[in-house]
Amino acid sequence: MSEQKISNSFGKQTRREFVATASAIAASAAAASVPGSALAAKNKGGTLRFSTRADARGLDPQRNIIYYVSHPLAATSGGLLDIDANMDIVPAIGEEWTVSDDMKTYTFKIRKGVTFHNGADVDAPAIKWNYDRVRDPKTSHSFHRSFFKEVEDVVAVDKHTLRITLKTPSAVFLASVTYYPVNLIAPNSVAQVDTHPVGCGPFKFVSWKRYAKTEMVRFENFWQTDAQGNSYPYLDAIEGYPKKEDKVRLTALRTGEVDLIENMSYADAANFKKNETANYNTWDIPQVGCGYLAIQAKKGPFAMDAADGKLMRQALAHAIDKEAIHQAIFNGLSESLNGFYGTASSWHMPDIKNVKEYDPEKSKSILRKLNAMNTPIAVVARQAYSYMHDTGELVYSMLQEAGFKTTNEVFDNPVLRKKYKKADYGIDSTANSYRFEPDQWYSVNVLSSGPSTKLRTGYKNEAADKLIVAARATRDKQVRMEMYTDVESMVNEDSALIYTHGIPLTSAATKKLKDYAPAFAGPFNISNGGVRTAYLES
Amino acid sequence: MLIYIINRILQIIPVIFILSILVFGFVHALPGDVIDTLTATDGEEDPEVRAALEKEFGLDKPIYVQYFIWIGNVLQGDFGKSLVTRRPVNIELLERIPATVYLALVGIGLSILIAVPLGTLAAVRRNTLTDYTAQISSLAGISIPEFWFAILCILLFALHLGWLPSSGYAPFFSEPGKSIWYLILPALAVGFRQAAFTTRLTRSSMLDELSKDYVDTARSLGLSERKVIYKYTLRNAMIPTITISGLQLASLLGGTVVLETIFSWPGIGLAIYSAIQLRDFPVIQAGVLVLGIMVVIINLLVDITYRVLNPRVGMG
Question: Mean pLDDT, to the nearest integer, of A314-336?
């Protein structure tokens, strides 16, 4: 198998060059480490009490989405590859890989000596078992499964070589085997996966009381080490305390009941950063994704095939005042966007065109011209996220002002999903994140055959479809950037999705927490960062 | 009395049976189902997957068959497994009941300890400073939103004074000291609001009783004012108070989602609320059924208390 240029996320480097560079900059010790023989770092440890907004739904990481930012349980899991603080995919359990010329075969060299928390080897047969389980609808969540829908076959060539064959060429498959979509569990622990999961992440599961407490202890045989050969993580233990109420989480930090909190409310974040810097560290963590308005274009006056559908959607787009959302909902902490990726992402596209600026008079003029004043439109939002329904409320007012006859309703997920299926809504105030590989956004939410497109918006643009499909099989990142820039310009012109804001998540911790470096993917699975490198000053 | 109690217990059986049908029916009438929640927004809509899950969860059977399977298992003490976490409902939900009962009982106890003396004093010393203070404080208790009062308590007692933890829970039997430590703020938040209602009720009941002829008769017979108030009047005035406290207790057992959220209290309200959002029907059914049974039992106890306080109360 010839060595190929791998450039989807790493620039134009050979795989070998990439591994060398990544190792030198971020994971030199990882490449040199021998798991099991590494020493624990002296004087670095402590029990981190971490308060999160949410808690996991269940313990099986393949049946449940373990939310990478907010669920303490995420520290128990790991994937074949890691992500670093620059949002690039880097070696992990899979320490090297090659891609065939036709981009249909990925071959991974599995790091030797890596074990699950119960001592079982993380080897090629174990990973194959995991991937087969994820591909089986009976044993996996559809979200995880969707990342493997192009997989034709998974073969354990030998104990340390794994080969994955795809149905169609893909330059983007690596993103499907990083941490979040497919976490690995020990095959011989599957019987207890719903009560005591055994993963290969930096912390071992101890106990879980839903909405109350998650206890984890340091995994002494974690594969990654620091530059001195000390094994990560440094912390002795993590205790997770989900506290849904933002104010309560913040109070728990200020009273010393916890050491670290995530997801500070936007209302609190500005003042806290201004007044509490002497006692606490804060981090504004950019998310790879954004808040946006999805317009239902399957039927009705805004439909793709309606005579004036495009003009009507543009009238909606001109009615949206992003600055008002920025100030009122995000307290000035967000970033106004014209495409899916914000400036923190290496996929940010500054040349996107056809942006529909805020101009309510233009909206009114379109509506008058089409004799469509007071066209009814229902704004909906998901109940679970307050910024979504707060934005929905504001959008409701903006559309009223522009001459639409609007309603505004908040629903829980099952009801909203029914509404999507029946195309029984007008605009959905929503958001999407963790799409560090752009194909995961465009193929799902913009491509006309994408599952979310079919379910929600019904957006169709043949030229955009061709570009998305072509980008998936293109190795050169710059070429892909240009393709996606064109796609975004078409999306803006068609106004089927209205991108609004990049949403940062603010974390805060006591000053005793040292060397904690959260990244867009949360605190748990960042190579050489997050809770792996953190410790509490005694 | 024994016959009365047995009679009432026998009446409970059909009530619980009807309750089980209602619970099952309402849960299955909710829009959306658990398969919708298990299929992520980005996930493919695959009819085969849906059919497989429906078969696995027994949703492919007629609704009445599903009911009889469920109630048959419940009668054997098996509430099934959560369809979301795949853990037994006993772990998911029933383990949370002690936390809810603990908070509800202490909260109601606290409210009675505040409300009965305060309401009685307010009635006995009508139109005095005591009465005005009781009325204003109970009006404040009714008017202040529960979540706001809870947040105020946290800010004052946890953040500014540092006397109490802002949130958390410890089981009473394993860590009694810590448990009480965590309980104080939530119980105060529950008790304050309930006490506000009960104070007003006790006051008006007492005023009503104090205006009756038997009170004048007792006084004319030369009984001490203390005896008239505490032995005769208060005893009769307590009947509506007990009724309301019983209803308050039943309502609190149903879960105080807001307070459980604010104080991170691992009670049943938050679990049922989450299960409803996810359409995790074995958890919802078990939770609502168990709570329903508890409410029925509380009503029974309230009725028995009536009889103890006033033997003239009919057999019903």
Answer: 93
Contacts of B232 (CB under 8 A, 6+ apart): B214, B215, B218
The whole model's pTM is what? 0.81
Chain-chain contact of B32 with A412 (C-beta, under 8 angstroms): yes
Whether A207 and chain B come into contact, CB under 8 Å, resolves to no
pLDDT higher than 50, residue A22: no
Pick from B159, B261, B262: CB nearest A255: B159
A248 CB within 8 Å of a chain B CB: yes
Say whether B44 and A210 touch across the interface (CB within 8 A): no
Mean pLDDT for A480-504 is 95
User: Measuring CA to CA, how many Å separate B250 from each of A301, A405, B8, B245, B300?
Assistant: 50, 43, 18, 8, 12
Which tens digits make up the pLDDT trace of B170-226? 888 888 999 999 999 999 998 888 899 899 989 988 888 888 888 888 888 888 888
- Give chain B positions within 8 Å (CB) of A384: 277
Taking the Cβ of residue B43 and every Cβ of chain A, the question of whether any pair is shorter than 8 Å is answered with yes
pLDDT tens-digit map of A50-62 = 999 888 888 999 8
| List of chain A residues whose C-beta atoms are within 8 Å of the C-beta of residue B92 | 210
List CB contacts of B233: < 8 A, sequence separation 6 or more. B206, B209, B210, B215
Where does the pLDDT of residue A10 fall: very low under 50, low under 70, confident under 90, or very high at 90 and above?
A: very low
Measured between beta carbons, the chain A residues lying within 8 angstroms of B158 are 251, 255
List the structure tokens of B34: 């658990």
Number of helical H runs and strand E runs in chain A: 16, 25
Residues of A whose CB is below 8 A from B36: 413-414, 417-418
> Is residue A167 within 8 angstroms of chain B, CB to CB?
no
User: If DSSP codes are grouped into helix, strand and coil, which group holds residue A293?
Assistant: strand
Residue A230 contacts residue A37 (beta carbons within 8 Å):
no
Contact A162, A93 (CB under 8 A): no
- Is B213 an interface residue toward A (CB < 8 Å)? no
Residues of B with Cβ-Cβ distance to A60 under 8 angstroms: 86
* Residue-level pLDDT at B214: 87
By Cβ distance, the residue of A59, A60, A142 closest to B43 is: A142
| Position B252 confidence tier, pLDDT thresholds 50, 70, 90 | confident
Q: Which residues contact A519 (CB under 8 A, 6 or more apart)?
A: A83, A84, A85, A87, A285, A526, A529, A530
As a whole number of angstroms, the distance between CA A524 and CA A89 comes to 15
**Section A196-218 average pLDDT:** 93
Whether the CB-CB separation of A485 and A351 falls below 8 Å is answered with yes
Average pLDDT over residues B233-249: 84
Task: Write out pLDDT tens, residues A364-399.
Answer: 999 999 999 999 999 999 987 888 999 999 999 999
Contact A257 B39 (CB under 8 A): no
Contact between chains at B42 and A143 (C-beta distance less than 8 A): yes
Looking at the complex, report in whole angstroms how far the Cα of residue A83 sits from the nearest Cα belonging to chain B: 22
Residues A184 and A126: beta-carbon distance below 8 Å: yes
User: Which 8-state DSSP code applies to residue B60?
Assistant: T
**Would the pLDDT of A33 be above 60?**
no
In this structure, the dihedral spanned by the alpha carbons of residues B47, B50, B52 and B58, taken in order and rounded to 10 degrees, is -140
